[in-house]
Amino acid sequence: MRAAVIGGGAYMVGKSAQKGKQQEADQNAQIQQLQEQQAQQQYQQQAPAAPVAAPAPAAAGESITDQLVKLKGLLDAGVLTQAEFDTAKQKALQGG
Fold it and tell me: With b meaning 16 or more CB within 10 Å and e meaning fewer, what string describes 49-80?
């Protein structure tokens, strides 16, 4: 009889510990999900609302180097995306 009481007590302690671990895992999953949502919201707030048009063609006296420096400045300032920068850079290098 004594062994049954001790075994039953150990079973209950084990179940309680397991339940606590499950609750902690659930909480960690919820925290992770909230962090991902916040990161996504911050990214969306930082991204431009509408696509930015490619810069106008360079003035007649502007060198390719000047054009590339201006484009890099726009990229660094977050005005252009990397894809927009690459497209504009190719146009500048091709003389268009």
Answer: eeeeeebeebeeeeeeeebeeebeebbeeeeb
